[in-house]
Write a structure and sequence with these properties.
Elements: E1 8-10, H1 14-37, H2 59-74, H3 80-96, H4 105-109, H5 123-141, H6 145-163, H7 177-188, H8 191-202, H9 236-253, H10 256-272, H11 304-321, H12 324-338, E2 356-357, H13 359-362, H14 365-368, H15 388-395, H16 400-403, E3 404-407, E4 410-413, E5 419-423, E6 426-432, E7 439-445, E8 449-453, E9 461-463, E10 468-470, E11 473-476, E12 483-487, E13 491-494, E14 506-511, E15 514-519, E16 530-532, E17 539-543, E18 548-557, E19 573-581, E20 593-594, E21 597-599
Parallel strand pairs: 4-8, 16-21
Antiparallel strand pairs: 1-5, 2-20, 3-4, 5-6, 6-7, 7-12, 8-11, 9-12, 10-11, 13-14, 14-15, 14-21, 15-19, 15-20, 16-18, 17-18, 18-19
Length: 605
Amino acid sequence: MNIDYRNIELRSGFWKQMQKLNSETAINAVWDRFDESGRISAFRFDWDGNENKKPHVYWDSDVFKWMEGACRIMSKEERPDLEEKVNMLIDLIEKKRADDGYFNIYFSVCEPGKRFTDRNMHELYCAGHMMEAAAAHYYATGSDRFIKIAADYADCIEKVFVTEGIAEFETPGHQEIELALIKLYKITGEEHYLKLSEHFLKRRAVNSKDKPIDGNIYHAQDNRPVEEIDSAVGHAVRCLYMLCGMADCAVLTGNKKMFEACERTYKDIVNSKMYITGGVGATRFSEAFSMPYDLPNETAYAETCAAIGLMMFADRMCKYTRDARYADTVERAMYNGMCSGISLSGDAFFYENPLEINLGSHRRAAVKDGHVKLAITQRQKVFLCSCCPPNINRVIPVIGEYIYDVEGRTGYINQFADSVLKAGGIEITQKTDYPWDGKVTITAKGLDKLYIRIPSWCRHFSINKDYTVCSGYAVVEDNAEETVFEMEIKPILISSCNKVTQNACKAALMRGPLVYCAESVDNCENLYSLILTDTNEAEESYSEMFRGILIRLNGLKIPESDELYSEAKANYEKTKIRFIPYYGFANRGESNMLVWLNYKGGMPS
């Protein structure tokens, strides 16, 4: 059964609050910054040659993502303010596009005559985001006006790249159009859009016409044909968007080799290249995946868009395989790696999401001189490359799609949220205060079987009915009355593989799906002097500011000393260590922050 976010209503709790924040604050804040920066007026094609106001190659995509987010909000709410803005942009696109359907701000006003000559100039990336925005507009309004504009552009691209083959490159430098074309195919039923997506995927890394970007065959995944890849390399967002397109294309065309490549690459990511927060892309260099187990905390890149890309890819794999381990990855990334990208106030954002902030490092000469780059310590309202804010705008409204799935008369609960799904005579309801509480009361109508994900973090759970276990799900066949699924949620300390050398002798705190961190504003200035011991006698309290539970643990502290070197002694003071959810760090001014703290549990004194 084809279900989407329009069939699902969030009623209360964590994600309902996030949707409210996005709808009331974030979507407007991003528009205002895009208007101030010139992104909106650029759609008028009125650049006057002033280099300070020159449109960037990715401005189209920033605004298209905002449009997609606005349309998704419009599909669930009466929002004439958003509708007016979206319609104004569609009017401009329709008016300014070329006769053959081509639309790109930069190449139309800055370098006319050079379209499709430079693989790294984001033309196909921007085109893909237009198609996604058009799909969202179609679902929100029922109008096919924008989708026809997007289809005309797709036809132009197909002519240039396939029919005539006159472009100076053969595949996108920044993948995204591959998955967008499949959305276009599903709406229009035109199979040539699916074939164009497959063309871009299968021609990758097999033709010398595609010059590696900056001479790096890994940056845009040009190292191997897609059916042969077995590891995540290069720019993290490009890689994950490509994997989304590969998964969709593989299933729709029956390409087993391509799907197996998705499975291999997923394992490589989660087994050796993913942070505990679900962040991916460890290195600032090329915003890329690094070597296996190279997961530095202070210099972590972990772009917000990459966490979103991982969510999108893992959710596809979950629904195509019915294996709950993929939904575990979605959960890790959505609560931690994505939510840390937006401030608690909803109007400021992070591009990078480090797992450690040491303000002392920012005062070093090498950092001040720009020789060493560290992530900013406070969220910004807009970035030169501002892809992450509108990406959050477009994902939060459709979070319901990650919660449920239905196949025939079998229902799947992949994520937990107070919500209801209604589609085709089937109704599934969850009553819960997850992730703060582990009790989920479920009612299901019109189903023969209900699959309930058993989270990988969950040590103990109970169900009030008979069940079997299959691929990480508890399978319940008696849905006549309420099913009560209860998970034990309590603070636990997590260690990492000893190959992650930066985390040696350290532990991180989790409670359910949430990663926690310590900030100096709640503790001492020198967080490195704190030592975790255990989670016995953990104290929990609810915070309105963080919209969630804070934790205090008993721990140890190394006494302060000005003596540079001294005899090593097990000399500790007892202390309380205070933790906040990782998604809430850097919301109270500049502060040191650690996810991984020294750990003494089980060691002799």
